[in-house]
User: Fold this.
Amino acid sequence: MILALILLLLDAPQSTPLQGPALDQRTQEVASGLRCPVCQGLSIADSPSEMAVNMKAEVRSMLAKGYTREQIETYFIRSYGEFVLLEPKFEGVNALVWILPVAALLLGAFAVWRVLRKLSAAPQPKPRVSADDPDLARVRELVKGATS
Amino acid sequence: MNRFVLSTGAVITAALVAVLMSGLGRDPKHIDSPLLGNAAPHFVLKSIGSAESIDIAKFRGKPVVLNFWATWCAPCWEEHPVLNETARAHPEVQFLGVVFQDEEAKIQDFLRRRGSAYPTVIDEGGRTAIAYGVGGVPETFILDANGTIVVKHDGPVSQQQLQAYLAEVRK
Assistant:
């Protein structure tokens, strides 16, 4: 009956049924990306809660029937929403989670570049007294006379 | 400082503050159910206290109050009399308890001591709970007569809340 429920929600399995060590390994991989809904930020692969154990068993059962990772994630998203994915997908509003930090970093780099460019392009301050200033020549003469 | 950089930074900061502020009033444990407005997942589960199974499809044609609970859940004890009373007061609404992560003997004992005005089924392995996106107990789903989920309530439901939900589903 539950298989019928899954079949109603998803297309036919799109991969080959897994078994043995390959099934164990793939179950662990897929379960690592699914959030345990009763835990704090733990995947169903890491949580010992009964809910997580049940969800992991469901993942294993679906892999054994030949469902792909994408099909399994779709099944869980239909029940729990995208919240169930530990890593949000790069699409729609979710893409902002990935784009905004990079955009902020680029903006910061741009600001630093602008400031540095302004500093290097600024004209050098002119000396207050030119080398051939008559007053300066007089001071030099006086200093020379005093020391000789 | 460049005016463009300042204004862009201000926009990004304002957006971040708005996102954080919008999250302040929300229950961090609440998950918006994507099932709202969609057909309730179908199931056939074994009835408590009998060898028969109950098919959710047989209740099509009248509103259904689907309550996920467990005997080890203290808020479920608090909620149980509310559900019983409302079920007795509204025979036109089908109430159904779905127990998961529990043992049949304990459920039977609980129902014998506290009474039950409606059938209860056991969800071995929690597969139906997963199909409904249940994150904890108690959780209550209200289905309209067409089998569409119109309400999902997290935590124990009060008499007033239940009455309001039933009024909504009868619209």
Observations:
- The radius of gyration of chain B is 20 Å.
- The interface with chain A takes residues 1-2, 5, 8-9, 12, 31-35, 41-44, 101, 125-136 of chain B (CB under 8 Å).
- The helical segments of chain B are 3-24, 74-89, 104-114, 127-131, 159-169.
- The CA atoms of residues 6 and 144 of chain B lie 53 Å apart.
